[in-house]
Amino acid sequence: MIEILNPNDLARARETGALVADILQTIKSRSTVGTNLLDIDRWTKAMIVEAGAVSCYVDYAPSFGRGPFGHYICTAVNDAVLHGRPHDYTLADGDLLTLDLAVSKDGIAADSAISFIVGDSKPAESVALIDATERALQAGIAAAGPGARVGDISYAIGSVLSEAGYSINTEFGGHGIGSTMHQDPHVANTGRPGRGYKLRPGLLLALEPWVMADTAQLVTDADGWTLRSATGCRTAHSEHTIAITDDGAEILTLPRQARP
């Protein structure tokens, strides 16, 4: 299903997007050396409930997971990159942590992810991984707008990641979003320009470039959810939900304090 939102829906999407972004920034500020991933999950649950919103993850049970997911946020550390299931792990200095959060409020969902380094140590490889995904995300957003094609976004994202020297996995990528978390169209992290679905105002997309330092192959943890690099190398993941507008693309998952 491809869903096109009306102006009232879009106003609600802005509120959901801001909530997702604010929760992520709050969790980031609390994620220090010694923080347990299960505490992050508890904090997230409390903020979602307080906002009168609903987690898109806790009851999520797609065909590729061993569901339901059972937690409120994805916490991926170091070689984990996607669907990181919170568990009893204490963050250490230099850990690369990815937080991925999807929430629904007033019937509209938003999805975002941030990667950052915990503590004072800043390994160069981790810094480069995060930088590449953030630049690729901005390139994808810049390529989005009315009349553009999904392939234009994929090409923009893939060009940045490839030029940075990373292999690209196409099993998981961006997606449509709206009244539900995962919708068509699929937005691969590499592709050919001028191909695919033609973007229209009112379409919401979650764009999410992610990479692994020296491989494109994933392995799945025994928990049935957490996806890791096959070689044990570090990973990073950046994501925003955007709305296609008459003028281009609007980022919905910016923190309120960062909005114009």
Automatic annotation (TrEMBL):
Root EC class: hydrolase
Keyword vocabulary terms for this entry: Aminopeptidase, Hydrolase, Metal-binding, Protease
InterPro entries: Creatinase/aminopeptidase-like, Pept_M24, Pept_M24_MAP, Pept_M24A_MAP1
Record-listed a divalent metal cation 1 binding positions: D100, D111, E239
Hydrolase listed as a keyword: yes
Cited Gene3D superfamilies: Creatinase/methionine aminopeptidase superfamily (3.90.230.10)
A GO-annotated cellular component: cytosol
Residue span, Peptidase M24 domain: 13-246
A GO MF term: initiator methionyl aminopeptidase activity
Co-factor requirement: Co(2+); Zn(2+); Mn(2+); Fe(2+)
Positions contributing to substrate binding: H83, H182
One example of a Gene Ontology biological process annotation: proteolysis
Binding site for a divalent metal cation 2: D111, H175, E208, E239
Metal-binding listed as a keyword: yes
First and last residue of the signal peptide: none
PANTHER family in UniProt: METHIONINE AMINOPEPTIDASE (PTHR43330)
Name recorded for this polypeptide: Methionine aminopeptidase
Bound cofactor: record note: Binds 2 divalent metal cations per subunit. Has a high-affinity and a low affinity metal-binding site. The true nature of the physiological cofactor is under debate. The enzyme is active with cobalt, zinc, manganese or divalent iron ions. Most likely, methionine aminopeptidases function as mononuclear Fe(2+)-metalloproteases under physiological conditions, and the catalytically relevant metal-binding site has been assigned to the histidine-containing high-affinity site.
